[in-house]
Each structure stands twice: as structure tokens, then as C-alpha cells.
Amino acid sequence: MVQDDILKVLVTEEEIEQRCVELAEQIEADYQKEGTVPVVVGLLKGSVPFMAELIKRFKFPCEIDFMKVSSYDGTESIGDVRIDLDMQISAKERPILLVEDIVDTGRTLVEVKKMFKNKGATDVKIVSLLDKPDRREFEIEADYVGFTVPNEFVVGYGLDYNQKYRNLPFIGVLKPEIYE
Ligand code: XMP
Ligand code: MG
């Protein structure tokens, strides 16, 4: 069982569900105040379980879509984000709510946010299940955060190690021998 590879659980399924109720209420209040209909965009693949848990609690009108991006390190100039799979709905003149699994260095979200502004989005907000502030290199904060996690590699609830463990219903840390 994949559960056997887990050293410790950081966030339980119940804690995630409860937090999604709170986040959904907060997000709903903000969009109702603005009176706008956002496009909720999940960043594949890590956001899928969190996105599902969150949006089923929204009682305000919204549209949903997905996209897959890779931001790359090294020689590429900042401002580059490769779109592996684009969304279907146009972002032009729309408020966007980006759904992400984790904000780590911040590179991905800095790039994606810039890209949405270039596409003509009127507003870009970010909701992330996890935040790992100790790793931040780029100046960005999610508007809504589920849980702050320590500087450890985490898996589960969408987050993977070599594409595995996304299906775990909790957030956990892998046993060291799994990496070796
Ligand atoms: P940046 O650095 O752009 O990274 O904020 C965001 C992406 O990096 C991945 N990431 C992780 N994936 N466990 C994972 O399974 C982690 O602890 C972790 N930290 C970063 C993730 O894909 C995220 O979208
Ligand atoms: Mg990701």
C-alpha cells in the first residue's frame, strides 16, 4: 500500500476538509462583495483533489477550467512559463482564481500571474492548499492559504513524488528510504 511509504502525516483528511469549508466561505464573501463571476483555474495536476474539495462548497456563480504549465529554471529569462495545456475559456476581461497545490519558491505563480495579466485578466487571485514560506525566492503570496508547512518534501492530496502519491487523502512526508 502507498500508505506504507509515509513517515508521518502533516495534515489529515478531516483537517483539509474543514479548512476547505473556511476557505470557500472567505472566497465566496470576497467575490460576492466584488459582484464578479471568476474563472476558477486549476493548475494540473497537483490542484485536482483540492480544487474538487473547494469548489463543491462555492455557492456563488463561477466557471471552472484547468491548465498545465511548467516554469523553468536556469538559463531561461524570468517571464517564461511554458503552457503544456491551455485553458479553454478566455481570460480576457475576466477575474481569475488560480488554484495551486503548493507555493514553494514562488516561481510558478509569479510567472502564471504575469501571464494572466498579459492575457487581459482583470484580477488574479491565488488559493493554495499549502504554503512553504521557508523556500520562497520570488516575491509572491497566495491570497488564501490552506496550511503552512515546514521545509520538507510533502506528498499526497495531489502532490507527487515521481508522479506517485497524488491519490493519498492526506498530506504526508515520505520515509527517507523512498528517495534512496
Ligand atoms: P514553485 O517553486 O514554482 O513550485 O513555487 C511550485 C511547484 O513545485 C512543486 N513542489 C512540490 N511538490 N511536494 C511536491 O510534491 C513538495 O513538497 C513540493 N514543493 C514544490 C509543486 O508541483 C508546485 O506546484
Ligand atoms: Mg504543481
TrEMBL record:
SUPFAM superfamilies: PRTase-like. Its cofactor is Mg(2+). Pfam families: Pribosyltran (PF00156). It is found in: Cytoplasm. Pathway: Purine metabolism; IMP biosynthesis via salvage pathway; IMP from hypoxanthine: step 1/1; Purine metabolism; GMP biosynthesis via salvage pathway; GMP from guanine: step 1/1. InterPro entries: HGPRT, Hxn_phspho_trans, PRTase-like, PRTase_dom. Its EC number is 2.4.2.8. One of its GO terms (biological process) is GMP salvage. Residues 14-161 form the Phosphoribosyltransferase domain. GO terms for cellular component: cytosol. It catalyses: GMP + diphosphate = guanine + 5-phospho-alpha-D-ribose 1-diphosphate; IMP + diphosphate = hypoxanthine + 5-phospho-alpha-D-ribose 1-diphosphate. It is an enzyme of class 2 (transferase). Keywords: Cytoplasm, Glycosyltransferase, Magnesium, Metal-binding, Nucleotide-binding, Purine salvage, Transferase. GO terms for molecular function: guanine phosphoribosyltransferase activity; hypoxanthine phosphoribosyltransferase activity; magnesium ion binding; nucleotide binding. Purine salvage pathway enzyme that catalyzes the transfer of the ribosyl-5-phosphate group from 5-phospho-alpha-D-ribose 1-diphosphate (PRPP) to the N9 position of the 6-oxopurines hypoxanthine and guanine to form the corresponding ribonucleotides IMP (inosine 5'-monophosphate) and GMP (guanosine 5'-monophosphate), with the release of PPi. Belongs to the purine/pyrimidine phosphoribosyltransferase family. This is Hypoxanthine phosphoribosyltransferase. It comes from Catenisphaera adipataccumulans.
